[in-house]
Amino acid sequence: MRGAPPDRLLKKVGDYMSGVAGAFLCASSEPSSRVIDQLKKMIPTLALRGQAGVAVSAFMQERGIRYGRAFQSNDNSVRIDGIEQDPRFRPHVAIAQIRSGGDDCDVQSIPIRHFAISLDGALVNAHELRSELLSQGPLIDANTDAELLLRWIERSCEREYWRHGLPADYEAIFRELDDRIDGAISALLLDKNGDLVAYRNRSGLRPLETMRASNGLLLFASENCAFAGLEGETQQLLPGSIQRVDAKTGGRVDHTLNSRGCKAKLCAYETLYLGSPNTSVEGHSHRQTRHNIGLALGRFVAERLQADPLLIPPIVSSMPNTGGPYADGLFESLAEQGVLAERSDVVATQFLERTLLGRAGARQSRIAQKYRVSEPAVAKRTIIVVDEALIRGDTSKAVTTMLLAAGAKAVHWAIGSPPIVAPHYYGMGIDTLDELAFWQALKRLPPELRAQCLRFHRMDPPALKIIESNIATAIQAATITYLPFRAFVSILANRLEGIDLSPFTLEMPTPAGRQRADRNLEAVLAALPVNTRLRSAS
User: Fold this and answer.
1) CA 278 – CA 228 distance, rounded (Å)
2) Which burial class, exposed, middle or buried, applies to 133 when counting CB atoms under 10 A from its CB (0-12, 13-18, 19+)?
3) Domain residue limits, the chain
4) Mean predicted confidence (pLDDT) in 374-389
């Protein structure tokens, strides 16, 4: 691919639960090909954050911004088409977005002259922002949050600076943006001069790590696992702040945008599901946290197994590709309590793409294609499948059906979190209460039992068992065991102030999220045969 003209069409980068990575060469005397080499090493470490492709943008003085796509081989090697093919194109900065995609995340085009962006997260109030931009003039191709942010930044620059012959004041631009948006955003912005701006909005739900590496590179990534094998100074970009890196000097300046608004909390999905096991946050390893959750969950599973002992030890299997540490901890816990079991993964995947995102029909098709079971291993055996969460129930139902069809005697599910009771508007593709397994189960309960379960994370153990039994029936499992909320928070006790637990509490972390959740809840409760008002959940 040759140099991009001013009206170059930039392929759309997805939002949702994506990942971002960036490399900036601060020592101009170093060979600039190392920027692309470093980015290629970082991309595979963030692969769990999305499998819908990797969009790359790179900048070289006098050649401007070029766009490409990265492709990863089975051996984790990466090639970047559209950028690497020209040996004379040696950028000093490059950014990548590891896209998670979804049904509506097909490649589209956006005319862009001045910027490239890599984005992790989502806007709750995207509709309001789009309407505001439309009131200022026609809006082309702003159908995704990434495109919307690009348009907002571009118009701010044109209105306040470029038409007056002034350089853009990114501190002022992002301060206004941080005031206007409601959601969870971390982003890397590359401008036409080769300057880089890293941004994390005030909610802090999406992480952004930086490293000043000893090899002369300044690195950015959604997780610090991307810095493995490197020496240097690491830090988190603070919520409600930007870091600007100057193209000519390599100097960086941090700006705090706003101290008002929500208290920063990292989304619980980062620790449970989205983050790499090799990532740590403030000294806490995701792998160890997940293992500890499995240990705690094992005590509840052991109670059930001891109440109805099995003649043949059950098989403990994880759900790929994130359930391994949970299953290891659960298996260890069973052994400590004298419960015989075998640890063997009998569920495997045929491709990596996540099935959480997208419309129901497309998701179910991907689920049917993604998973396979080891038929000889499961015949006439009891299987305990360990997973980090049960959200909609469509994946767990499909896998249960596969295991039973392969001859399994019974399938039990052990879930390393409390019931998911809330939608997630911040980049996880869960938009309504109705699609959650908890609410489907609640609808099938008689009115007198619903009120008990509407206490959510404060529900009593008997109410939790009712939900477990109802969902187990729906997915054709013998039992489901959730990790109770109190046990869950005891594992996270020393850092609860920094974790958003809204998936289990329905207490949204942003104002727009709270308003939308309240409307969502009122609509669902109004549709029940006996209307239970919002206050009954408190």
Assistant:
1) 9
2) middle
3) 9-261, 281-537
4) 94
9-261 placed in CATH 3.40.50.1380: no
**486 Cβ contact partners less than 8 Å away, ≥ 6 residues apart:** none
- Which residue reads 């911004």 in tokens? 65
Distance from CA of residue 35 to its chain's centroid? Answer: 26
* Mean pLDDT of the residues in the chain: 87
Contact 272, 389 (CB under 8 A): yes
For residue 445, give the DSSP letter. Answer: S
What's the whole-model pTM score? Answer: 0.89
Q: What is the pLDDT of residue 49?
A: 87
Q: Is the pLDDT of residue 108 over 50?
A: no
In tens, the pLDDT along 409-436 reads: 999 999 999 999 998 888 877 888 988 9
3-state DSSP assignment of residue 89: coil
Q: Does domain 281-537 have CATH number 2.60.120.380?
A: no
The angle formed by the CA atoms of residues 300, 305 and 310, to the nearest 5 degrees, is 165
Kindly report which listed range (113-117, 383-387, 407-411) carries the lowest average pLDDT score: 113-117
Strand partners for 20 = 97
Token pair in block for residue 526? 């109004």
Helix (H, G, I), strand (E, B) or coil at 200: strand
- Report d(CA 107, CA 11) in Å as an integer: 6
Q: What is the tens place of the pLDDT at every residue in 17-28?
A: 789 999 999 866
The answer, yes or no, to whether residue 14 has pLDDT greater than 60, is no
Cα 235 from Cα 481, distance rounded (Å): 38
Q: How far apart are CA 228 and CA 223, in angstroms?
A: 10
DSSP-derived secondary structure for 330-393: HHHHHHHTT---EE---EEESS---SSSS-HHHHHHHHHHHEEE-HHHHTT-EEEEEES--SSS
Tokens 């960036």 belong to residue: 22
Instruction: Report the alpha-carbon distance of residue 7 to residue 5 in Å, rounded.
Output: 6
Q: What is the sign of the dihedral through the CA atoms of 159, 160, 161 and 167? A: negative
pLDDT of the residue at 289: 96
Provide the angle, in degrees to the nearest 10, between the axes of the packed helices 324-336 and 286-307. 50
**156: which residues sit within 8 A by CB, 6+ positions away?**
168, 173, 176, 177
Report how far residue 71's alpha carbon sits from residue 82's, in angstroms, rounded to the nearest whole number. Answer: 11
Contacts of residue 307, Cβ cutoff 8 Å, sequence gap at least 6 = none
- The DSSP letter of residue 211 is E
Residue 136 has a CB neighbour count (10 Å cut-off) of 10
Number of H helices, E strands in the chain: 16, 26
Tell me how far apart the alpha carbons of residues 153 and 187 are, in angstroms, rounded to a whole number. Answer: 12
